[in-house]
Design brief:
41% of the residues lie in helices and 14% in strands. By secondary structure, the protein is an alpha/beta fold. It has a single domain, classed as FAD/NAD(P)-binding domain, CATH 3.50.50.60. Residues 1-6 have low confidence and may be disordered.
Length: 175
């Protein structure tokens, strides 16, 4: 995995998922594969989606489900904010917080417990494991397997090809 840091753009991507523990390495293998090479492009697409987050994946899935030839381009991590920094991580942290709150009020329900302590490192490790477990659903390999052209924009403009009529910009508001 360390050799991927030498490739253009990888240091910035790896900084998004520190530490590079086993769960984060699995996440990167799914949503930003280290050896990923942009496909050559296959002529004309019905839809080119810019952004591989939730909106981009849903747009591409809907079009592909109707028989469209779809290409999707992502500059960072497939799955976007939802998988990588928003929905999934926040729900994992909230669940741990609810468990602490329940344990602390257990005595009022007739349940005796000892002092409740939070191991924040373990909470974060659990979040990373959950996120890595979900990541195959948004992975480059899966998207390619269902017939999409999946490109990384990290090395300049991706796969050659053109859109018949539609480009969908589903990118985050980050500059």
């Amino acid at each position: 995995m360390a050799t991927t840091l030498e490739q253009p753009g990888h240091a910035r991507i790896h900084a998004l998922v520190e530490p590079l523990d086993e769960a984060n390495q699995e996440l990167l293998a799914q949503v930003h594969p280290p050896g990923w090479a942009n496909p050559p492009g296959n002529g004309v697409y019905d839809l080119v989606v810019i952004g591989g987050g939730t909106a981009g994946l849903v747009s591409a899935a809907g079009a592909a489900g109707l028989g469209a030839r779809v290409a999707i381009v992502e500059k960072a991590l497939l799955g976007g904010d939802c998988l990588n920094s928003g929905c999934v991580p926040s729900k994992a942290l909230l669940r741990s917080g609810r468990a602490v709150a329940e344990a602390r009020k257990a005595a009022s329900l007739g349940v005796r417990t000892g002092p409740v302590e939070v191991d924040f490192g373990a909470v974060m490790s659990r979040m990373r494991v959950l996120r890595a477990g979900i990541s195959p659903h948004d992975s480059a390999a899966r998207l390619t397997k269902v017939g999409w052209t999946c490109s990384s924009a990290r090395d300049g403009f991706p796969a050659r090809g053109r859109s018949r009529s539609t480009v969908s910009f589903c990118a985050s508001s980050e500059p």
